[in-house]
Design goal:
Structural class: alpha+beta
Low-confidence stretches: none
CATH architecture of one domain: 3-Layer(aba) Sandwich
Number of strands: 7
Largest sheet: 7 strands, mixed
Shape: globular
Strand content: 25-35%
CATH class of one domain: Alpha Beta
């Protein structure tokens, strides 16, 4: 794996960091990642997404970025459930890695970062959805996530075709558990 530093992203950050996030999102979607957008993703839509996603207050959401030097090469979000009866769980969202950096351990490192942070906060359950029959499912299984089921015709992928979505979960042990 290339030298990657993972850090939480918060505003204000230099404009270059926001531009790097926009590049990342466009690259991911335009190379087939199912992140809620259709390809080709216009730069203006990526800008709009990140401004909304990072708008304060975001106490329930943390974005981690993987940086190779000054370049953002990956990102993932932990969204904590705010409902009174569900504050013990969170959702892993928008895991993306630059096409040129895929297959080099960046995604695994980002997922482990979320898991560690969630565990340290006392969260007991993480959930996520991923396009069915893609490398994402294999990654989550390799990292110890449990396949929970599948929704048919759940979303349109980057190319506009309807696809099923696999649901995964991971139970976390509290950090101080033996």
């Amino acid at each position: 794996m290339p030298h990657i530093e993972i850090q939480p992203f918060s505003l204000p950050q230099p404009c270059a960091a926001l531009a790097s996030l926009e590049d990342l999102l466009c690259d991911a979607v335009n190379n087939g990642a199912s992140l809620g957008f259709r390809a080709p993703l216009p730069r203006a839509r990526a800008t709009e997404f990140w401004k909304e996603h990072l708008r304060p207050p975001i106490a329930e959401r943390t974005l981690w970025v993987a940086c190779h030097g000054a370049q953002v090469v990956g990102a993932v979000t932990l969204d904590r459930c705010q409902r009174e009866n569900a504050r013990h769980r969170g959702e892993l969202q928008k895991l993306m890695v630059l096409h040129a950096f895929r297959g080099q351990g960046v995604a695994s490192a980002l997922v482990r970062q979320v898991e560690g942070a969630a565990r340290a906060e006392g969260l007991l359950l993480l959930v996520l959805g991923a396009e069915a029959n893609t490398p994402a499912g294999a990654l989550y299984r390799k990292l110890g996530w449990t396949w929970s089921g599948q929704f048919p015709v759940y979303a349109r992928g980057a190319q506009g075709h309807l696809h099923a979505t696999d649901c995964f979960h991971k139970q976390l042990q509290p950090q101080d558990a033996p």
